[in-house]
Amino acid sequence: MDCELLLDDLNDAQREAVTAPDGAVLVLAGAGSGKTRVLTRRIAWVMATDDLPPERVLAVTFTNKAAAEMRSRLERLLGRPAGPLWIGTFHGLTHRLLRIHTEAARLPAGFQILDSDDQARLLRRIVRELGYDEKRWPARQIANIIYRTKDEGHKLGELEHGNAPYERDLAHILAAYEKTCERAGLVDFSELLLRTTRLLLEQPDIAAHYQARFRHLLVDEFQDTNTIQYLWLRALAGKTIQPFVVGDDDQSIYGWRGARIENVQRLQHDFAPVRVVRLEQNYRSSGNILNAANALIAKNSERLGKTLWTAGAPGAPIELYAASDDRDEAAHAVARIERWVHEGGSNEDAVILYRANAQSRVFEETFMARGIPYRVYGGLRFFERAEIKDTLAYLRLVTRREDDAAFERIVNLPARGIGARTLETLRATARQENISLWQAAVRANTVLGTRANHALAGFIELIERLSAGVTSRLADTGATPGALGEAIEYMITASGLDAHYRRPDDEQAESRLENLAELVSAASEFIAEPELSPLTAFLAQAALEAGDTQAGDESNAVKLMTLHAAKGLEFPLVLITGLEEGLFPHQKSIDTPRGLEEERRLFYVGMTRTRAQLVLSYAEQRRLHGQLHYARPSRFLLELPPEAITQAGPRRLSPGVSNPASPAIRLGRRVRHRSFGEGVVLEQQGNGAHLRIKVAFENGGTKWLVAALARLEPIA
Ligand code: ATP
Ligand code: MG
User: In b/e form, how buried is each residue of 559-592, taking b as 16+ CB within 10 angstroms?
Assistant: First the structure.
């Protein structure tokens, strides 16, 4: 192919990065400046100019969806399939390596990934079994400790602990967790990276093999890598491979999960000399939006600093809507999208972004009522739905009997008379003899009553039968994707799950069955990496699925997702909602400058997703997690240049009333009135001399008062 064609539509700085000679490259540049485009082009360029086969390239993206998109772009550029190119997320790629080197990594064949949900169950069980107080030891908290430790590159066993009771108990729990995972062949997310990194460091021949194989190693969204991801990259690259990474410190939004912006400096040190390329032209957003985003991010102090400009037109102003409550906000969003469509756009152009998953519900209801197709990304992901997890647990147990997490989930599903007492006995045996629950069940006949034994024997027989059925279906037709779908379909029926979910009393029966059908069709289309058995690969994929792909049709649907999930994407029409103090910036980050700066970067990420029209909104009153909140507009709104914004809706954002620093009478605030007594501010309208305030007084009455006359006194 003509290599020059690959450079035609790039600017000089982009071209410099794409064609950089051997050596490490760091592209550090703002949103929408073409980093991802440059990375994709770089792959095409090295393949075309060096006549490099695709298997010599490894690229890391942030989501599976981004990986799929990059691969298809690349194939279009090259005009041929890029099959053996390794491209995926950190989790996906390290998982693949562990499957290839299972034995060297000291894992059992057929090991499975422990997702966060199963991990929480397992931890709860361990805490209970060790006799600790579950309230003192919430699973989530222990899981955080596990991730923090491993993400920093340490094994749990290496965690230093003192002699304080808390520390000793923690050490016990972690040791029991390790042991259970080890025995059951379960690997949690961070372990995928930790184990692969150790493998590469401890077995130089394996590292050398990959260093000879991969000539190029590329990473997108480098600003969000954590320590272990960096260490993995470094171990894989060794002294041979020079990485090519792109990122933007202003878009680092995973600090709360251990991402380390210091990796930028580490890279420059470890791979010196590193060629740093800066891209300064933004091709995504109109001038107005870009200026506002630049002004916002300038409020952050911890920045590497960069310029970003656009040659494009200023475009439409940013719209700001002050909603009275969350329903009003949703109604406005729907109306705004309808207008967009009326003016010639389509639903697909639009995305609704929010800070917390729970915010999606009201939008969903409103879209449903208006008959507008929509899709929620993230939230309860497809593979996390109960019926899907049940089915997968059957498949996992069929694949590997030692999988205790799967055993626990389905041993009595559908109900077959295996009660809590029986399970308790099995757990005790398993613990004492250090065997799996399955083995304990097989041996159980000596310790259990006949009824329980009978039920267990039935379960064991069922799993063996399913196992034979699944295996023969997969073997019969070879590895054709259709076979996997058939095997799963057979299993759903033969396990009794299908009948179980068909119960007429289950309101959700229909949607559950639809989801199961969707699972079968996903399996039928699934193509495994060449080294893996299709079933194992499919199960791993289900656990790794980052929530970025979901079942269902994408066409003509409005998209709903969190701001975090929107990273790297772009949309013509962007609606950022819930811009309220305590929600965005989020309460948990509001008190530290660090947390606040990360929230601001998140807002920056949201704004810079926009191609044409940005719409911001906040609600004065919001029901969230079953509670009514009164909130002030987000401080971020006041940080935007006023001239970039037009306000819509009955209310106006005016710094005097809503500046969080001002002691004015705010929504939700307690006040005292000379004659009516104490109450809470519910609503306000107008401003200045016309400011009217609605107060719910404790003596029962609710009144509208003219602020200038009422002389309300704020109380703490
Ligand atoms: P983010 O920081 O959000 O990940 P990015 O830096 O990766 O953004 P891209 O997504 O690669 O930016 O590019 C943003 C948009 O600009 C895309 O639509 C891309 O096709 C377009 N673009 C990039 N470079 C050019 C160029 N030289 N000419 C025309 N369009 C370009
Ligand atoms: Mg990008």
Answer: bbbbbbbbbbbbbbbbbbbbbbbbbbbbeebeee
The per-residue DSSP string of 403-441 comes to -HHHHHHHTTSS--S--HHHHHHHHHHHHHHT--HHHHH
Q: Which atom of ligand 1 lies nearest, measured to the CA of 38?
A: 11
Q: Which ligand has the minimum distance to the alpha carbon of residue 283?
A: 1
Please report the atom of ligand 1 found closest to the CA of residue 11.
27
Q: Give the integer Cα–Cα distance in Å for 612 and 619.
A: 24
Q: Which of 42, 71, 99, 609 is catalytic?
A: 609
685 φ, ψ (degrees, to nearest 5): -140, 150
Question: In 3-state terms, what secondary structure has residue 372?
Answer: coil
Indicate the pLDDT class of residue 380, thresholds 50, 70 and 90.
low
pLDDT, tens only, 659-672: 333 345 677 778 88
Tell me, yes or no, if 609 is annotated catalytic. yes
Strand partners, 648: 321
Helices (H), 218-286: 227-237, 263-270
User: From the CA of 38, how far away is ligand 1's center (Å)?
Assistant: 8
Contact 681, 694 (CB under 8 A): yes
Rounded CA-CA distance 650/690 in Å is 14
CA atoms of 330 and 352, how far apart (whole Å): 10
Tell me which residues have their CB closer than 6 angstroms to ligand 1: 9-11, 14, 31-37, 248, 251, 283-284, 568, 570, 608
C-alpha dist (Å) from residue 41 to 22, 50, 223, 567: 16, 14, 20, 20
- Residues 527-547: pLDDT tens digits? 777 777 888 888 888 887 644
Task: Output the average pLDDT for the chain.
Answer: 88
Separation in Å, CA 578 to CA 250, 440, 597, 636: 22, 51, 18, 12
Contact predicate 567/251, CB 8 Å: yes
pTM exceeds cut of 0.90? no
> Residue 402 corresponds to which tokens in the numbers above?
């030692």
Q: Which residues pair with 705 in a beta bridge?
A: 693
Q: Which of 180, 133, 137, 131 is nearest to 156 (CA)?
A: 180
Q: Give 422-428's long-range contacts (Cβ < 8 A, gap of 24+).
A: 422/448, 422/452, 422/455, 422/456, 427/125, 427/129
Consecutive H or E run containing 188: strand 186-188
Q: What is the mean pLDDT of residues 429-440?
A: 91
Contact 229, 217 (CB under 8 A): no
Pocket test for ligand 1, best of 283, 294, 310, 571 (most atoms within 8 A of CB): 283
Confidence of residue 336 (pLDDT cuts 50, 70, 90): very high
Number of other CB atoms surrounding residue 625 within 10 Å = 7
Helix axes 139-151, 189-202, angle to 10 degrees: 30
CA-based max dimension of the chain = 86
- Catalytic site includes residue 221: yes
Strand-strand pairing, 702-706 and 318-325: unpaired
Location of structure tokens 């690229």? 59
Helix and strand totals (H; E) in the chain: 27, 21
**One of 220, 249, 599, 620 is an active-site residue; which one?**
220
Catalytic residue among 61, 225, 242, 251: 251
